[in-house]
């Protein structure tokens, strides 16, 4: 059977011509992706923040040298970096940071395990959404440090208190991230899935969850930030020898000894951990997910 | 037998219809706000037939398609399909953006539990059928609009025909429901894809129910054009596009009737 399908049209040409035209269109219309070279990405991504940090330290040095504020209020960059240096050299900094990070990571993972089913329920069951959706958003806005006094009275000065505060900080953000991720899935996708005969669980597993992944990842990122700051709040307020010595306790100790270099060193370490986790884990994961969907913009 | 001859004799096809819509009505809302989208629509489509549902906006042609697809239920009347499940194609390709073209085509097979290597092979076969060989590893955003819509066509064919000749659904060429699938494409791409669709239809023997508001498209593609009126949607008239009738004349005829149906709403 000849594949001449266009006989009822006064169209010149043979199907081979049509195929040629089709191939030509494909070649013309295919989006071209321009990848910026590595050195350019490094130049635009890494150099500006380094310059900003250097400028900041220079201004700090100038302010310190002009002696506007007394030394115990504004220590020199040298003394702060010296404190960090000696703490790192004798292994104290590593022990302190490890205490805090291990708590934050454990608390964060626990929060993911608790928040994911909550988010799924809120997103998919209208009754649950109208019942606890607003509470979840409210809890997200409540500074989790407000839970510290209650937690101390409930659990005493131990790790349970710390984890409770971290969970109260992280669970609402992660759950809400998942909810908004699912809400933003284009309604056509589950329809297509249904038209192809997907069961409810198949639709959830193969279509809804992957489609909601960018939003969920955003929620995870925010959940980590909330875990980290809740942990710091808990560690600063609830200090006890039985609680171990984390970054919050280190900060607290600096304050009670009026040791300004230690205080600023602690703040810098907290900042570095926050930025480090973002850059090492969340940024690459997010880029990967967005790039696979053609959503990533910029370098 | 040539394709030309086949198209000139769309006449009575043998066998029971694969799609049978009987007295279907669909009402949205209740009371005074109720909108009658479809009112007593009868439509039957034979196996292997290519039917276009034509109508102005608001004529309920998409509603009818959704009812046939099982995405919605009629208020009254019955929709019977002999195919296990008609496959649907929409105006947007609606590909899953995180899956490659090949995995998108595999998805309906994966949903029905086909093994990895068999569905891979079938996806390659179908991508080749829509002239996308070698593009299986591309993601939707790396393809043009026309190519995405062809991936969607391959996926719909996978849903409609399963594993094709090699599989268990040996003699089931499937049913394809298409809801203005080329509406969002530019004129040149649309022209090419119409030719591709006809080629694929003749190669596979699939039954096609195609919704459009473009008279020229319906005359070019369909063996039978069904005109629906608007609010309420009713079947106004049908034309067989046999090749002995002049397409231009037929186009004029249908356009005249469509204009009449639309201007009835001005009064």
From TrEMBL, chain A:
It is a multi-pass membrane protein. Belongs to the binding-protein-dependent transport system permease family. PANTHER family: ALKANE SULFONATE ABC TRANSPORTER-RELATED, MEMBRANE SUBUNIT (PTHR30151), TRANSPORT SYSTEM INTEGRAL MEMBRANE PROTEIN (PTHR30151:SF40). Residues 1-30 are annotated as: Disordered. InterPro entries: MetI-like, MetI-like_sf. It comes from Actinomycetospora aurantiaca. Residues 97-281 form the ABC transmembrane type-1 domain. This is ABC transporter permease. It is found in: Cell membrane. Its main location: membrane. Pfam families: BPD_transp_1. Keywords: Cell membrane, Membrane, Transmembrane, Transmembrane helix, Transport. It comes from the Bacteria. The keyword Kinase does not apply.
Automatic annotation (TrEMBL), chain B:
The keyword Nucleotide-binding applies. Pfam families: ABC_tran. Residues 19-255 form the ABC transporter domain. Keywords: ATP-binding, Nucleotide-binding, Transport. One of its GO terms (molecular function) is ATP binding. InterPro entries: AAA+_ATPase, ABC_transporter-like_ATP-bd, ABC_transporter-like_CS, ABC_transporter_ATP-bind, P-loop_NTPase. It comes from the Bacteria. PANTHER family: ALIPHATIC SULFONATES IMPORT ATP-BINDING PROTEIN SSUB, TAURINE IMPORT ATP-BINDING PROTEIN-RELATED. This is ABC transporter ATP-binding protein.
């Amino acid at each position: 059977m000849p594949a001449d399908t266009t006989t009822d049209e006064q169209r010149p040409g043979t199907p081979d011509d049509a195929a040629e035209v089709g191939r030509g269109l494909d070649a013309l219309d295919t989006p071209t992706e321009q990848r910026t070279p590595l050195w350019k990405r490094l130049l635009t991504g890494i150099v500006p923040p380094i310059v900003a940090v250097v400028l900041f330290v220079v201004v700090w040095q100038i302010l310190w040298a002009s002696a506007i504020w007394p030394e115990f209020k504004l220590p020199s960059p040298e003394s702060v970096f010296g404190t960090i240096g000696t703490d790192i050299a004798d292994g104290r900094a590593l022990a302190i940071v490890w205490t805090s990070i291990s708590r934050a990571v454990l608390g964060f993972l626990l929060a993911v395990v608790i928040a994911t089913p909550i988010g799924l329920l809120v997103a998919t069951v209208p009754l649950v959404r109208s019942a606890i959706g607003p509470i979840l958003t409210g809890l997200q806005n409540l500074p989790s440090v407000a839970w510290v006094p209650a937690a101390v009275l409930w659990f005493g000065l131990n790790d349970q208190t710390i984890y409770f505060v971290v969970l109260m900080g992280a669970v609402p953000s992660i759950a809400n991230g998942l909810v908004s991720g699912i809400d933003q899935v284009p309604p056509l996708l589950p329809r297509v899935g249904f038209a192809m005969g997907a069961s409810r669980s198949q639709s959830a597993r193969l279509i809804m969850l992957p489609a909601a992944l960018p939003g969920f990842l955003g929620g995870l990122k925010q959940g980590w930030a909330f875990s980290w700051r809740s942990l710091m709040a808990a560690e600063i307020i609830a200090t006890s020898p039985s609680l171990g010595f984390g970054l919050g306790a280190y900060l607290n100790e600096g304050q009670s000894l009026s040791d300004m270099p230690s205080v600023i060193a602690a703040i810098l370490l907290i900042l570095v951990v926050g930025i480090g986790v973002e850059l090492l884990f969340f940024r690459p994961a997010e880029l990967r997910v967005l790039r696979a969907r053609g959503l990533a913009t910029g370098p | 037998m040539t394709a030309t001859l086949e198209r000139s004799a769309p006449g009575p096809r043998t066998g029971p219809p694969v799609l049978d819509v009987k007295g279907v009505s669909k009402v949205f809302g209740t009371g005074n706000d109720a909108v009658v989208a479809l009112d007593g629509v009868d439509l039957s489509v034979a196996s292997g037939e290519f039917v276009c549902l034509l109508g102005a906006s608001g004529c309920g042609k998409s509603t009818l398609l959704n009812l046939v697809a099982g995405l919605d239920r009629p208020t009254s009347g019955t929709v019977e399909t002999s195919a296990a499940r008609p496959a649907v194609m929409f105006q947007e390709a609606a590909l899953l953006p995180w899956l490659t073209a090949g995995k998108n085509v595999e998805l309906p097979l994966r949903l029905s539990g086909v093994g990895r290597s068999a569905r891979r092979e079938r996806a390659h076969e179908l991508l080749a059928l829509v002239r996308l060989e070698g593009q299986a590893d591309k993601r939707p955003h790396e393809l043009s609009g026309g190519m995405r819509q062809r991936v969607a066509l391959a996926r719909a064919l996978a849903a409609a025909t399963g594993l094709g000749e090699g599989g268990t659904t040996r003699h089931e060429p499937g049913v394809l429901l298409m809801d203005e699938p080329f509406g969002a494409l530019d004129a040149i791409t649309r022209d090419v894809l119409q030719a591709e669709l006809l080629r694929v239809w003749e190669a596979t023997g699939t039954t096609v129910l195609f919704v459009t508001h473009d008279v020229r498209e319906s005359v070019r593609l369909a063996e039978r054009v069904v005109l629906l009126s608007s609010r309420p949607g009713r079947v106004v008239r049908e034309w067989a596009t046999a090749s002995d009738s002049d397409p231009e004349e037929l186009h004029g005829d249908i356009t005249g009737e469509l204009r009449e149906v639309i201007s009835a709403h001005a009064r």
